[in-house]
Design a protein that fits this description.
- This protein has 250 residues and is of the alpha/beta class.
- The protein contains eight helices and seven strands, in the order ααβαβαββαβαααββ.
- The protein has helices at 23-36, 40-54, 70-78, 93-104, 144-154, 172-188, 193-203, 212-221; strands at residues 60-64, 85-90, 112-116, 127-133, 155-166, 226-233, 236-242.
- It has a seven-stranded mixed beta sheet with strand order 3-2-1-4-5-7-6, with helices on both faces.
- Strand 4, helix 5 and strand 5 form a beta-alpha-beta unit.
- The protein is globular, with a radius of gyration of 18 Å.
- The protein starts with 22 loop residues before the first helix and ends in an 8-residue tail after the last strand.
């Protein structure tokens, strides 16, 4: 699997279009995400470990907003629970096409079904694990509670939701500091100030981020009994949320 370098925003653009998961982004996505999100590889690897702990025999696992399938493949490689089946969903045809080629390149006991679909309309089957790895942030804010409620309803007792998000903070001084540290991280990974600025402008209208407190309140409001941030770096956080009977699968 070759990794193309992300240079989408490397030259000045007359007009910066809204960010989209199109063929151009899909072609450079592994490089883009690893150079843009601190700890991304750790998050993906740990999701595979969590799946091995919380997957229930003969149940479905959902990877929502699967992009090129990194989470699905991490679960496939690390989960040894019998009879599980992964359904990987993304609403981008370009992402799904490349995801399918990546999935086809890996052998393993766990089947992965890759689908083009909108999770807002999707009818979920009962499942033991759902992953939203930097996905909810691209859904309209007023729709997020209903999405999380629908996912909670689909989870079996003891089921696990993994939610990873870029976040903002109520304290403006802290928020500005964490944004600066993130931009410094991107510069260290080879992005120019022009690339950082143009990418931020492209995301402005399509990625509206919440505070950690809002995410946690939403998870609890929809019924999750255990909500815990397990990863934090700058303005990026990942949570586990468990539906009832957590002690049976801890």
């Amino acid at each position: 699997m070759t990794k193309q370098r992300d240079s989408i925003y490397a030259t000045p653009l007359t007009q910066v279009s809204d960010f989209a998961f199109d063929a151009q982004v899909a072609s450079v996505f592994p490089d883009m995400i690893n150079r843009s999100v601190p700890g991304y590889a750790t998050i993906v690897n740990t999701i595979g470990r969590l799946a091995n702990r919380y997957a229930q025999e003969n149940t479905r696992i959902y990877d929502l907003g699967c992009s090129l399938g990194a989470v699905s493949l991490s679960i496939k490689q690390q989960c040894t629970v019998p009879g599980v089946h992964i359904t990987a969903i993304d609403n981008s045809n370009a992402m799904v096409e490349r995801c399918q080629s990546h999935v086809n390149a890996y052998r393993g006991a766990i089947p992965i079904d890759v689908q083009v679909a909108d999770i807002l309309d999707y009818r979920f089957e009962p499942c033991s694990i759902i992953v939203l790895n930097f996905t909810l942030q691209f859904i309209e804010q007023e729709q997020r509670t209903s999405v999380i409620q629908k996912l909670y309803n689909a989870l079996l007792p003891g089921g696990l939701l993994v939610l990873s998000e870029k976040v903002t903070h109520e304290d403006p001084v802290a928020d500005a500091l964490l944004i600066d540290l993130h931009h410094e991280f991107k510069r260290e990974n080879g992005y120019s100030d022009l690339e950082i600025s143009q990418k931020r402008a492209a995301l402005e209208n399509v990625m509206r981020i919440d505070t950690p407190e809002r995410h946690e309140a939403r998870l609890r409001e929809t019924g999750f009994t255990t909500v815990q941030a397990w990863f934090r770096c700058f303005n990026f956080t990942s949570w586990i949320a468990i539906k009832g009977n957590a002690n049976e699968h801890a």
